[in-house]
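General statements about sequence and structure are easier to judge against a single worked case. For one protein, we set the task of working out the structure tokens from the amino acid sequence alone. This step matters because it turns folding into a mapping between discrete strings. The amino acid sequence and the backbone structure tokens for this protein are reproduced below.
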Amino acid sequence: MRDIRRKVRRAQTIVPFGVGGIIDLRGESFVAADIRSWAAKGERVESPRLAAKLGVEGFRSAPVIPSGKAAYATRIGPVYVRFPKWLFCPQCRDMQLWRPDREVRDKQPTCMRCAGKPQLAPMRFIQVCRAGHMADIDWRRWAHSRSESHAQRQCQVRRLRFVATPESSGLEALRVVCAVCRAGRNLAGISQKNILKQTGLRCTGSHPWHSEVDEADPCEETPQAVQRGASNVYFPIVHSAIDIPAPAGLSEEDELSQNVVNHFLWPDFISAGDSPIADSYKVVIASKCGVPVDFVESLGRRIAGDAGGPSAADDSDDDLSIAEWAAFSAPESVSGSKTFSVRRTSLGIDHEDPGSMQVLTTGISAVVVADRVREVRALEGFSRYEPSSGESEEDGGGRVASVNTHARAQWLPAVETYGEGIFIAVDEERVSSWERIPSVREWTRRIERNLNASFKADRLRSKSGPELLPRFVMLHTLAHHFIRQLSYDSGYNAASLRERVYARSHAPDSHFPPQAGVFIYTAAGDAEGTLGGLVRQGQQPNLAETLIRLLESAQWCSQDPLCADSTGRSLANLNRAACHACTLLPETCCEIDNSLLDRTLLIGDDEIPGFFREVVRAAIEESAGAVDLP
């Protein structure tokens, strides 16, 4: 493979140009190879909680090449492979199957037959399957698939032309023609399901970065033709965790216990049970953590006894949210950390402030500003054509392809970002009383029925918990409107902010505390990481004014009354009163794909009492009283 250099930002090696993702650069198209192509010089990223959740040894990030030194540095970063390999000349329309030995450093592929050597363009369509495989379409087979004469059916020549005919329009005007036998076929209907199967094409069971020595996977999935820039070509599976240090004041035994539980082999030790391999795990963990083997064994028995067997409340997603919720709920318990600096503040509302703000403060129980937080984002794998529905393949959806397509991934590519944020917790007693209102619970049950029928049910349940609570939909909608309002007030653009919703339900026998809060933080890894604008908006009196304005703006949508009266929106009808004009955000902001949103549960309507309905009413009365009538 020739050493061809292009520039990609470190954060882009996770999303959107992570392993398996396609990137277009000045008319060229590349795909990111798997982590086998990463050099051993990748910088280690520490996140024990996330590593334990994903069952890997650790994480690595792509090394940064200093500015101006790219021409002198050896290959130390991820490898991107030219894809698709079928290219065509925009002048003579000849198609060429490009080979790596024809690459010239820092030069684009050019046509050697035409004057001026125009740059070759990649073919628009490729084939993918639900198992995560991707390959070039066999254009020779496509061109000869409707051959009439015997000579055309027996033609094995790969000299093809990609021509455009003026007699028609659309895909019918584009034809792939054999330059020798003149057999050809237009692209009409190429996007239809099973069209490649009808043509006789099968999935190759390989990935574009596989070499000739790599053995293809036996794949029985039906390949589908898609445009290489289509949204269903690449669905990355990204996990994130905020770096939460150990609470201050822990005893020595508690610190040792936390080190043992955070070891990357701990999940394997717990799942091994009484099998012989559990003894090996136990010895390794004890040696690495500097504790006796009996300590590891007793800790495992205690945790297994407390759990009472596997349950939905014991999954690793829940564990991440529990630790983060505890840290934000008691910020004074964490001190002296360089990566997690939080402090408690308040809305700063007294009896002289307007009535809407006084009503608002009764629903907000805590406000915490994070001057510095560290987030680790790791890429576990990807799926194609259809998003992954979870671990079960029978439920539909695409299958997850690992970032290491040759063996089990021992480490995952990741990136760490530093930023700031605002945490808001709503009053548990008030939100519990609100959830017991029959109309609120029935409204949420309708959304939950759509959730149960969705192919994304498993993935969304990992965030919402075993039961979809009204507080989750309400707080998720609040987080979206909070980000939209902060994009006006703080100076950050909306795509630079992210959300974390803490409203997860637990199993009935769980001892975990209830959650009811949101955390809005910066997600950019560049200069927009810690500008200070978000922390300033989280202090008084700015935060109260921001919350009042976002609740007032949530009443109006340019799509009303269609949006406000909706009984099912977006994919699988997982949204209610929420659309692009009022609530939806860029995909990078939302942790559950802009799903489970509803302005009705936030501000209410004639039938459903929203959690902040009284705040909105008080604000409207104040606005009406401030108008001077003639």
Notes: The longest strand covers residues 364-383.
